[in-house]
Amino acid sequence: xxxxxxxxxxxxxxxxxxxxxxxxxxxxxxxxxxxxxxxxxxxxxxxxxxxxxxxxxxxxxxxxxxxxxxxxxxxxxxxxxxxxxxxxxxxxxxxxxxxxxxxxxxxxxxxxxxxxxxxxxxxxxxxxxxxxxxxxxxxxxxxxxxxxxxxxxxxxxxxxxxxxxxxxxxxxxxxxxxxxxxxxxxxxxxxxxxxxxxxxxxxxxxxxxxxxxxxxxxxxxxxxxxxxxxxxxxxxxxxxxxxxxxxxxxxxxxxxxxxxxxxxxxxxxxxxxxxxxxxxxxxxxxxxxxxxxxxxxxxxxxxxxxxxxxxxxxxxxxxxxxx
Length: 323
Fold this sequence. Notes:
QueA-like; 7 helices; alpha+beta; six-stranded antiparallel β-barrel; Thrombin, subunit H
């Protein structure tokens, strides 16, 4: 066990290695609205777009968002001329999420850019209903490209453009996958039998450039470094589909990795410090000791060491490299 600065990461990479990152972009998916009839306040977190202006969303308070309820947006945030933006609750699913049909503009995503808030985790405290202006930049990786996540792939937040350039100059191939992070990733596991826990599906894209680079690395004996558990889930999902070799693919994954697990693609993992009982911590535990169950104890020792050294945990926290 060693303590390093994140700027030391290039020291652990070798010429010919491949570094894979998740280039999904966080959308300002949190909206505040009011009941058109009663004036009651709502908070929404948009989760998944079915089609333009048709979204599934988490709603608080959910019991007041009955089917047929009309919600107004804009005036709650005192933005002039925006009261015409509204939504109707079309249906609710078993998980309590609401399906919303927006109207008043061609695409609600235009409205999000103005009125939406970055969906910071609840443990990041902000005064009132606001957030710091810099959150829009800080809660986004420097290589974020494709809109769709409601939470940042936080292991990627540590990388700067200069650090990535340094890694490339060292002969390491830097490439990307896209997995749009949903809130299901962070839900705690509540079942005593892990095999009974159901992961929410998340959309991902695995492109030709990354497929070619990773397959070549595995063939030559070079290593694949994954930045973040979301990147691991894409690579290992595809490896499970195609006998350890990657193929170009776009779809959804609900893979749940926990000990014991044999990793077919990823050789090194960069990840943050995760919440207890989370699927993220279980994946990291599996990676700490592939194919065995002692990874949990190894991770707990590492976490105890991090606490003693006053590391910061969770989204804006520090990272660990598991080799």
